Amino acid sequence: MPSSSPPNLTMASVYKSVSKTGAKPPSPDEPDKKNKQRVLVLTSRGVTYRHRHLLNDLVAMLPHSRKDAKLDTKSKLYHLNEIADLYNCNNILFFEARKRQDLYVWLSKAPNGPCVKMHLQNLHTMEELHFTGNALKGSRPLLSFDARFDATPAMQLIKEMLHHTFGVPKGARKSKPFTDHVISFTIADGKIWFRNYQISEAEVAKSVDPDAPKSKAVETELSLVEIGPRFVMTPIVILEGSFGGPVIYENKEFVSPNALRAEIRNRKAQKYHARTQEKTKREVKMKALGIEEGREKGELDDDVLFT
Amino acid sequence: MGKSKLKSALLQHQGRDPIREKQKKLSRRQPKSLCRRGGNGEKEEEEGEEEGGNVVPELVDIVTLASEGMLKSAMETEEKHTESDPEEEEVQDSNSANRGEEVEEVEEIESDSDIPLSDVSASDLDSDTDHPPHQKLTTNNTLALTASLARISLPRTLLFSETLLVTTPEPTAILDIHDDLARELTFYKQALSAANEGRDKILAEGGQFSRPVDYFAEMLKDDEHMGKIRQKLLDEAAGTRAAQEARKQRDLKKFGKKVQVARLQERERGKREMLERVKVLKRKRQGAETETATETDMFDVALEEAVKGRRGDSRDGISHKRQKKDQKYGFGGKKRFAKSTDAKSSGDLSGFSSKKNRAQFTGVKKRKPAMRPGKSKRAGGGGGRMR
After folding, report:
1. Basic and acidic residues compositional bias: what residue ranges (chain B) (predicted)?
2. Which of residues 177-206 of B touch A (CB under 8 A)?
């Protein structure tokens, strides 16, 4: 039985399935036992080179992904569903750049949702990091999740979507049958931290055991070498539909980078404001007392009288 | 407010202020009505979805009913003015207890803590009710979230080799998020445990885990990139080695300077000792015995005296003084033009030293005038003279 059954079956495949059913009745949950994922990966306009490099890194890591041209619009994101449909993708990983500095990540299950919007920061691409780790292109990663992902329903949902997006399904095109890297997601400080490690195996010094040579596999000890990239994501909002629908989760702790920058600017401006205010206050006070600052000294001034 | 005198007298007797009580009740009632508003909004939102739609409106109805019931009871108490405050509290409690059986989501809607700041008027903030001010209204629709999760989640029966998903048994604990080393170590440990667990599970299912040695394929980082990384590592190593070398050189230089200074001091001391010895010698020649001089000094001086005496005492019975005087004032021979130059003397360059000539013009090293020796030296040296 073919692993993927397209909706419009050709005659040959119909015949094949019919003849197979005759031989062996397939269990009804047979097609469910497959993990079929395809990810559409693209960015909005206005990404910087680092954002682009991160995208390239991720595309290299995800053989089940389809990279598309930059999306022109930032407001009509629901068009992404059509693009995903065009490429037979059921996941969308969309990078939205704002003001050429802030990067937002949308993870979506096309076409019916849900979708998650996250703010991506502390971004370091593979090239910048100079890590010595390396892995096969297209090998399937082990996905390591923090147990905190199971604590709240929102995080459970995010975990599932991260799993669909970053987990390479078995038998994906160009995927390799070996596992040589781990992608770990950890929740700390209300953020999701992404790390990618190579699994390096080193043979352990053999213990003098009489039944050791029986086992064919050599005992190896695992250690990790980081590959990169690194980034941190803060969940902002979860929508029920794909790029639309009601808001079912909103992170109230998230402060938008715009607000943060404004706050910093205001704090700086406050200094000047306080100074000018103090100055005018003093001027008013002097005027009220009838003292002019630039006035010539008269005969009866203290400075003249008691020299 | 047309109140009977009897009633007001009663109130006065009980020591209660009806106006204040009314204000209190109003302020207490306001958040509830706000909640009701929020609840209705939620209801509209919920109706949009498939699963949670038929559950939530019912709950909201209960809420509205309950709050209305509370309103009624509050009004009753207001009219009667006989029930005291604690009793009203009890009414509230019983209401909330009834509602406590419902889903927690309703409680979230109900809870007074999540009221947008804009909806709370200033009078509310001024009164005795205290709300923690929240800027944002938290949305955390548990029902919808779980429904969405159920819709997209993969079947639990999938083999491990299909999902390759590992969850840590316990949540990771990072004490200080800004401690880079500890944080990265936590991540590393998490990933390592996942790798070990994953390997065991894959091998248990009979899958392949490690790549054979002779299996070559395109890598995530190409050779050029890896070369760059190697170059970077080499550069770093070279840099650290160079820095170490430089530090060693610097230390050596410092040490060398110390040695040089020590040598100079040694030379200086030798010179001073020499001068002192000469001084002592002179004094001896003058016949002044020094009591301070030690035996060795005396021995030395005697030796030198012997050496000097033989050389400078007198030549052919002529005293040194006479010799000098003869040289100065003349004794025998022609005196005239003795000091004037002639062809031979002007051609004589034996006294010329180019080094000295140069030193004269550059004039870089001017000799310091000899310092007056310290008091202890003077006291030590001139002990004999003082007496």
Report:
1. 75-84, 308-319
2. 177, 183, 186-188, 190-196, 198-199, 202-203
* Residue A108: both structure tokens together: 């979506």
**Distant-in-sequence, close-in-space partners of B195: CB < 8 Å, separation ≥ 6:** A142, A144, A182, A197, A199, A222, A224
- Could you tell me if A160 and A185 are in contact, meaning their C-beta atoms sit under 8 angstroms apart? no
Q: Which of residues 47-66 of B touch A (CB under 8 A)?
A: 48-49
Q: Which one of B145, B157, B236 would you mutate to disrupt binding with A, by most A Cβ within 10 Å of its Cβ? A: B145
In whole angstroms, give the CA distance from residue B202 to residue B209.
Answer: 7
pTM for the complete prediction? 0.58
For B364, half-sphere exposure in the C-beta direction (CA atoms, 13 angstrom radius) is 4
Count CB neighbours of A260 within 10 A.
10
Partner-chain residue, chosen from A32, A126, A178, that has the shortest CB–CB distance to B210: A178
Global ipTM: 0.81
Give tens-digit pLDDT for B191-244. Answer: 999 999 999 999 999 988 888 888 888 999 999 999 999 999 999 999 999 999
Q: Which two tokens stand for residue B65?
A: 């009913």
Task: Name A200's bridge partners.
Answer: A223
Count how many pairs of residues, chain A against chain B, have C-beta atoms within 8 Å: 216
Residue with tokens 């005492």: B313
Q: In whole angstroms, what is the distance from residue B256 CA to residue A192 CA?
A: 57
